[in-house]
Amino acid sequence: MQKNDQLKLKLIIFTIGLLIMSLGIALMIVSDFGVSPWDVLHVGLYYQFGLTIGTWSILVGVTILGSSALLMKKWPQFGAYLNMLLIGFFIDMFLLLPFLTEPETLLGKIGMFLVGMILYSYGMGIYISAKLGAGPRDSFMLAMQEKTGWKVSTVRRIMEIVVLFIGWLLGGPVFIGTLIFSVTLGTFIGFALPQCQRLTDKIINKSINNKVGKELERGAS
């Protein structure tokens, strides 16, 4: 399997992961049960200044990528830019769906939120498994970790707290789900990422073997 073919396959997997992850974000937003700290910021900016939630996700991503580039004195991998653009676009796309509405009951809100969180975790696992680069927020986290020498967990925790506080000041939706997300996301990702990585490796290896097999058949004929 040529490198171009492998890159195309990875791009497909990467995009599918972002699509699933964005659907998870949209479900959590619509559930009105709480969202991730970053989405508290995006929704808060939307409340205060208009535009769309997806647009703010992109604009915040641009700011963060620029900050990462300044700190590291190098540009992030192209996957970071693709991540930033596609997630913003996909979030707005899903939020425009007429049948995606806020549940009327608390049980419905909880259910939609949990489904959203599961999709978010597996979507993240799928896009990371393609190994085309970290997203803007992860790039900034790694840049800060390298500059400060602090643990990744410490840097990430500080980032989440600062972003959550700013989003809350802007009127973003901080609720029980926000706490649940912050406390349990690591566990969700811990389950999802290894499964997604095994599946991606299996798909890529199968494609490589099929390609080699076809080339051998052509050579034999």
UniProtKB/TrEMBL annotation:
Top-rank lineage group of the source organism: Bacteria
Keywords tagged on the record: Membrane, Transmembrane, Transmembrane helix
A Pfam match: DUF6198
Membrane-crossing residue ranges in chain numbering: 12-33, 45-66, 78-100, 106-128
InterPro entries with a match to the protein in the record: YczE/YyaS-like
Protein known as: YitT family protein
Species of origin: Lederbergia citri
